[in-house]
Amino acid sequence: MADLTLGLVGVGRIGVMHARTIAALRQDLRQRGGDLQLVLTDVAAEHGQAVATELGAEFVGSVPELVGRGIDGLVVATGTGTHPELIRAGVEAGIPVFCEKPVAADVATSLPVLEHIRRHGGEVMIGHQRRFDRGYLEAKRAYAAGELGWIHAMRAVTCDMSPPSIDFLRTSGGLFRDCSVHDFDILRWLTDSDIVEVYARGSNRGDPAIGAVGDVDSALALVTLADGTLASVSASRYNGAGHDVRLEIQGSQGSLLVGLDHATALRSAEPGVVFPAGPPHRTFAERFAAAYRAELVAFTELVRGERANPCTPEDAVAAAAAADAAQESLATGRPVRPGGR
Fold first, then answer.
1. pLDDT recorded at residue 341
2. CATH fold group of domain 134-283+318-332
């Protein structure tokens, strides 16, 4: 098995998680006769160096230096505003890129990036980790196999146990862009059908500072897909029971519920029912630990040319278009048709 060297930009919360996952994958590859090296950089040099030392990785002082090291793939885990320039840097260097969602802050900013990728023949995979979660994969398999019949309703839920900092929310783009974009992506991915209309409502019953920065702490969207399927997408920053991500799929012949296990953040009101036994997940990192690992394995396979891109920039921008539409509907009170595809 050929050796690989991955470069990583950004070692904040999710960047450190990716760095540790890559370090764990290194051990697996060594057992199979290969190797995986990690080179990383971050504007917070002292922190970046500490992470590199912890993981036996190499730290370099800048993105140009990182790209110039002859890396085989580039992992981007920085803030959204830097994604376009870093994607361009990797593409122009002829390096496959894995970038955390989204491509850019909104669809309008994303479209020139898509054009740049196409013009340079770049290979860019966007991080929508739910596509690699075993529950969602089983739901897609069952749907594609016709086991559920035609779908009459889907209900997607993404609820955090507690809100992030106000500083983060000030630049997050809004609850639908930050959280529900994953649900919009999964609805499209599972059904192979585009989202054609979104109608959204939201509320603020928690910290007033969330409303002061232009966001809501809870929201619900009614989604219509091109094939006529109806779905609801709900999100909240205040789910005290735990981190809750689920997808209920009801079809003419069968139903499935992704995310229903002993860590599900709810309890039954029925007497004598003890399922789920808990404890619930507290963060997205716990809920999707295995999916994040599978996602980076998929990226190494993409770098080696062993598989097709499992989440293209076009896919990500289509999900972002639905999130943009939801944010617009939230502001206007009207149904909105996504654009930008």
1. 40
2. Dihydrodipicolinate Reductase; domain 2 (3.30.360)
Percent of the chain with pLDDT over 70: 99
SS3 state at 114: helix
Bridge-partner residues for 256, per DSSP?
249
CATH 3.40.50.720 intervals, the chain: 4-130+292-312
Among candidate residues 200, 196, 202, the one with its CA nearest the CA of residue 218 = 202
CB atoms within 10 A of CB 152: 14
Token pair of 196 as six digits: 């054609």
Q: Where in the chain is the domain with CATH 3.30.360.10?
A: 134-283+318-332
**Record: fold of 4-130+292-312:** Rossmann fold (3.40.50)
Read off the tokens for 211.
């409303």
The CA distance from 64 to 54, in Å, is 23
**Block residue for tokens 């035609």:** 150
From residue 291, how far is each of 96, 129, 162, 263, 311 by CA, in Å? 20, 6, 22, 16, 14
pLDDT tens string 174-232:
999 999 999 999 999 999 999 999 999 999 999 999 999 999 999 999 999 999 999 99
Q: Give residues with Cβ within 8 angstroms of 14, minimum separation 6.
A: 77, 100
What are the CA-CA distances from residue 254 to residues 150, 227, 249 (Å)?
9, 18, 8
- CB proximity list for 80: less than 8 A, separation 6 or greater: 102, 104, 105, 171, 173
Q: What tokens does 233 get? A: 């997408």
Provide the β-strand partners of residue 38: 6
Strands 97-100 and 124-127: parallel
Tens digits of per-residue pLDDT, 231-268? 999 999 999 999 999 999 999 999 999 999 999 999 99
Answer whether 323's CB lies under 8 Å from 177's CB.
Answer: yes
DSSP secondary structure code for residue 251 in this structure: E
Q: What's the whole-model pTM score?
A: 0.94
